[in-house]
C-alpha cells in the first residue's frame, strides 16, 4: 500500500528568528498567490501578478489590463451566471414545446400540415420553432413560409439560449440540461463504458449524496482526489471499484445514458456492472482494499435488483476477502507500523462498513454474523467533525438549500454502536434462545432493548432533527427502530401465544417503532421529495410494513401502512427489490387472511 503522507505537502520549516520580531509572521514573508489572471495574461499564457489592474506583465508591455472574475468558473459569480443561463435555456425549451403543442392543436389544417412536413423533412429546429411561434392567421402557409424566409435573410432573430441551437440538444432531457454535478471527475481512464465526463461526474455526485452517507464504504475525499489524478497505479482507486460504484449510482439517475436498453428501467447501470464483473474476474480474487470495496458494491447492486440470494453469496465472498486482507485481526505484522494514520483510518472505516452490512443481512437471513468485529474504531469519539459538506443533488427543487456538515463520522459511530448490539441480538435469538427458558430470554431481550433506547436518547446534537434534517440523521434513528422491530418479532416467534403479557408488550413496542419509522420517512419525503430515496431506506420499509399490516384495526397504523406503500411506489421503477417487497406483503396478507386497505391497493396496484 502507498501511505498517505501529508507531511510531504507541507513547506519546510523556516529557521527561528535571531531576535524577537514584533508584528511579523512566517506567513507574511510568503509570496501571495494570485487568485485570478487578467484577460491579456490568459491569452498570452503567462504568469499574472493579479489585481488590481494593471498587473506587472501588462504594465511592462504597456497593454490593456482587464480582470473579469465572472470568467473564473471557480467563483460563485460564474456559478450564478451558469445557473441563470440554464434557467433561461430551460424556459426557452419549455415555451417552444408549448408553442408546438398549441400549433398542433390548431383548427387550421394548413398550419398543422406545414409543421408536420417540416418535421418529416428533418428541418432544423429553428425552422420548426419559427412556424410554431407564428400567431395563427388565415394565411397560415404564407405567413409561416415568410417567417422562415425572413429568418434566413437575417430580418428576424430567434432568441434561443446561447444564440444558436444544435440539433443534438433535442435528445437531451431537461434534467440533463440543468444538471451541475457536485463533483467533477474524469471518465477516463476509469471506465470503458463511456467517455462522458459529465455523466460520470453526475453518477459520482449521486453516489456521494444518496448512498455513501449510509454505508461509508470508501473515503470520499481520498477517492475523489484519486479519481481526479487519473493514476491507474493508485492503491486507493481502480477501474473495478469505479465501475462498481457507477453501477450502484445508476439506481439514482434518470439520465437515458444509464439504461442499457432504452426505456427498460431494469437495465439501469447494467453496462457498468458488466464492466465491473469483467474487471473483477481479471483480478483473480486478490485481496486488496479496492477489491473488497468493489465486491461489496456489487453485492449492493444485486440486492437492490431484487437478487437477494446472489447478493448474500457475493457478500460472503467480500467477507472472506476482508479476512484474507487482515481487516478483522490485530495488526502484528511489522509493516503495519509503517502505515500512516490516514491509511489506518481508511482500513478501519471499510472494515466497519463490511461488518455493518454483514450484520444487517445476517439478521435478515436469521443467522449469526460469523464475523469478528473490527478491533478499533476509525476515529475517536471526540474526533467526529470533518470538512465534508452535504447538500441534495440534483438541486432542481432545492436551489436555495444551504449546505450542511455531512456528519459522516457521527453516522458511522452510531451504526457501529448499533452493529455491536445487533451481533449480540443475533447470538441471543439464533443460538442461546434454544438453550434457555422463556423468562431468561425475555430478560435478555429487554436488556438489548434498553441498550437501543439509551443509544437513541444519547444521540449527538449533530444528528438532531430540525426543520430540514439530513437524511442520514433520519436514517440513524430509523435503523435503531428497525433493530427494535427485529428483536421483538423474533422473540414473538419463540413465544408464540404462550405468554400473553410478554407478547402484548412486545407487539406494542415494535408497533410504536414501526410508526416512528413511518414518521421519519414522511419527513424524508417532505424535505427531499419522492424521487431520490436512499436505497438503504427501502430495506427498512421491508421490515416495517408487515408490522403495520398486522395492526390494521388501528387507524394510525393503517395510515402509516398506506404512506409506506406510497413510499415504495415512488422507487418501484428504480429498484427491482421493491417488487419483491410488494409480493411479500401480498403473500403475508393472503396467508393471514388480512384485507389490504383500498388506499394501499390503489397506490401499489396489488394483485
Helix count, DSSP H or I runs of 4 or more residues: 24
Low-confidence stretches: 1-8, 16-32, 137-171
User: How big a fraction of the residues is strand?
Assistant: under 5%
Q: Which structural class is indicated by helix and strand composition?
A: mainly alpha
Could you please describe the fold and organization of this structure?
The two termini are 54 Å apart. With 607 residues, the chain is mostly helical. It has 24 helices and 2 strands. The chain folds into 4 domains: 39-67, no CATH class; 79-163, no CATH class; 184-365, no CATH class; 407-604, no CATH class. The protein has helices at 26-29, 39-44, 56-61, 76-104, 109-120, 125-133, 140-153, 174-177, 197-210, 212-215, 220-229, 239-249, 270-283, 289-304, 308-325, 341-365, 408-430, 438-457, 471-495, 500-528, 535-549, 555-570, 577-592, 598-604, and strands at residues 389-390, 404-405. The longest helix has 29 residues, at 76-104. It has a two-stranded antiparallel ribbon with strand order 1-2. The model is unreliable at 1-8, 16-32 and 137-171 (pLDDT under 50).
